[in-house]
Each structure stands twice: as C-alpha cells, then as structure tokens.
Amino acid sequence: MIAVIGGGIVGTLIARELNKYEKDVYLFEAKTNFGMGVTKSNSAVLHGGYDDPPGTMRAKLCYMGNQLYTELQKELNFDMKRVGSHVVAIEDEETHYIYELLKKAERNGVKGVRIVEKLELLEMEPNINPRAKRSLYAEFAGIFDPWMVAIQAAKSVRENGGKTFIGKTLIDVEKKNNKFLLKFSDNTTFEADIVINATGLYADEIAKMFGDEVPEIFPVKGEYFLLSKDYNYVNSIIFPVPTGISKGCLVLPTVDGGFLVGPNANRVISKKDTATTREGLNEVKEKGMKLVPNLNFRRHLVKTFAGLRPETEKKDFYIDVGKSGAIHVSGIRSPGLTAAPAIAKYVVDYLIQEKLGINLSKRNDYNPITQKTPHLVHIDRNEWNKIIQEDPNAGEMICHCNKVTKKEIIDAINNGARTLDDIKFMTRASFGECQGGFCTAKILKILAEYTGRKPEEITQNEKGTWIVNSKVRI
What we know:
By secondary structure, this protein is of the alpha+beta class. The chain has helices spanning 9-19, 57-76, 95-107, 118-124, 146-159, 203-209, 278-291, 297-300, 336-355, 381-390, 406-414, 420-427, 440-451, and strands at residues 2-5, 25-28, 45-46, 80-81, 85-89, 113-117, 134-138, 142-144, 163-165, 170-176, 179-184, 189-192, 194-197, 218-227, 237-240, 250-253, 259-262, 266-267, 301-311, 318-321, 327-330, 397-399, 404-405. Strands 9-2-1-13-21-20 form a six-stranded mixed beta sheet. Strand 10 and strand 11 form a beta hairpin. The longest helix is centred in the N-terminal third of the chain and has 20 residues, at 57-76. The radius of gyration is 22 Å and the shape is globular.
C-alpha cells in the first residue's frame, strides 16, 4: 500500500499520479475535506515561472507545472482561465527590474513572456495607475480554484480504486519489517510500504515522526480583500515589482468574476493564525491602490480573509527521501500551487522510480477523466430546462448571489460534503456578496435532511464550529 499524508493540492495530485500506476493508494487528510488548508486561502494564481531563481526547485517545477494544467483541467473539470499577468513598473528605478525578470525568464526556459510598453499596457488595463511605465507580460499566467483541483483529484483516486479519508490526523509512526505503521488520532492504524508526507505547514513536524529532518517551516501570513463583481477593475493579474520577501501585493480577477487584492507577507508564530488585522489590511489597501487607484473598498467589499504559507529560510521547495525511506514534500511556498502537477511527477518518476528504485507500470484500466456537476446557470437554458424536467431540484435556486441550485448542493452532499464550508467550496453557495446571509439557513436544512443529522450537529468546518446549538425552526 502507498500512503499519502496530506490532502491539499500537492498531496492529492501526488496520490492521483501514483494511482495511474497502483490501485492500492490511500490518501489521508486531517480536515473535513480536501484542499481546505493552505490550498484554499491564497491568490489562486498560475504563475508564469519567470520570477523564481534559476537553479532552484521552484524554477525547475513552476513553468512545467503551469504547462501541465492545460491537460489537467480537461481531465479534472475545474474552472481555470489563462488571463495573463503584468509585473508593472511604476517608478523609474523599477524599470531595470522588469528587464532583469525577462532575462530570468529566458534562463528558466519560460515562453510567452515579453515587455509591454505604456500605451499598450493602458489599452490592456485601462484602470492601471497612469504613472505606470511598462510591464512584463506573461500570457500563460492564469487564475483557478485550487481547492477544486484537490477535491477533484481526490475524487479521481476514489473512482480509480484508491481510498481517501478525511478527519485523519497522524499522531505516531513505527517502522517494522520495512513497512510503516501509521497511527491516527481516531485510534485507527494503517500499514504502508511507501509513505509520502505532503502535510503543508506541518510537514517539518510530521517528518520528525519518521525520524527525519527537513528545513524548519515558519508560517507567513497574507491578508486579502475580496471585492464584488459590480465593477471590472482589471482583466488580468497585476503584480508590483516583487520584493525579497514576496511577489508583492497584487490585484487580480477571480474565476467567478470577483476581484482579489493582496496579500501582504508577515511572519507569524502560530500555524493557526489566520486572523486579519487593521494594520495589515490598511497595508494591503495602500499597496493595491498604488497599482489600481480607483479600487473602491467601501462600496465593493465582500469580505476580508487571511491565509498562511509554509516558508523556510532557504525559500525553496524541499522534496526528497528521508533516511527512514519516507518521502517528504515540504516548504511548498509560492509558486507551490502552480508547481503541484510537476511536483507529483517528480515524486513518482524520480524519487520513487529512480532514487528508491521501485519499478512502477502504468495501469491499463486507469481513467483520467473525472466529471463535476456543472454550474447550471452557465449551461444552455434549453438543456437546463431538460434537467429540471428530470429533477425539479435543478430549478430551485438556493444561493441567489452565485445562482446555485438545490440540485448542485445535493450533488455535493452525495460527493461527500458534510459541512457548510464543504458546500461553499464545492458549489460556491454562500460565496457571494451576502456571504451566506440569505442561504445559510436553507443549506443547513438541506444538509440535515440529506445526511440524516440534526441541524445542531452540522458545523461550519472543524469540530466545534457549530451554527445552531439547539432545535430551531428553519
């Protein structure tokens, strides 16, 4: 048996890549669904690969991963748009850095990158700061929903004979007779021949359970504004000239039509510190308006949020075999989302087959296609009417902000959704302007009805995040 610990975008894609060779793949995730950790709270950008230092693992895997997403999208059926990105030079002294980035792109083998001068830049992005001098444009950069990649990849593993588990927190490891005995907090144990540790922020702590050492991970917090779809601020991803700490505070569209502004980058102590701060949000606001001066945070604000990334002092990925024989995929900071498909291939093709010398053969019965319930409002109206005739739930609108039907919510429950956040991230219900103000009660009722639970037993996400604590009329 091959075990993958960690169900973020990296862990699920590794499990899916392994499943192309071996049916006996087990995927373990501590949270209530896949992709609910680092994977869901970030800029959700497919980076171009021009910024990463040549010779690093980041540079080796970022552009490769970017290109792999084209086929991956077709197979896993998640939303993705290649809208392109601009790194914008506003001050005179920033211009030289644009040309340095272009040279770096050439050294990294990145295609589709060029310098855009001011007039063309303003035509492409009318709301950009009019002081902008020029930009580095990457046509293959894109936006997507990374948590849906994880959810769909996990579904692919199940459909191809593997097993996936949620609510499984690893607490101890023993090695006997060249096998790993994995012990989880719910008193279950599993025996594995190969183990891949892809636990995000906690990969360094999990490595120690195996008796291995990886670079220490410290969390870096990024804060964001999510703005509504009411005004088209930008058409592509707008970056400032990057700093030594991060790629900077950016302004970008989301795949469902909203806009993100952020993040800043501040080192924090706790790996659970996802609170926003007044100072941090003011910093994001100021930097965002330097790129797009007409951002209206008062009128178009939907929500603020923060996410953490697993940083190390070396600022590079650590992907290697430990002395225990376990594989550790650690320090997956930006551009980890972009590199994820390439990381999966690196683990399987190089670390397992070459470095560990384990010969794997492709399965003849593997099906790479995983379907997803379509967002009905986006399909042809005649086709939608046919679906309503077969299932009246397809005609009952539950989330009016994002036009999510009862059928889509029921389908998510049938695919494993058990919490309000599961429904939110699998369907986008309660993701809109009202942030669940009008649809939460309806979703709670549907969850209770179709899972056979009481409303007070249903949580927002983790254990203890209850919504109602006694019987109510809904």
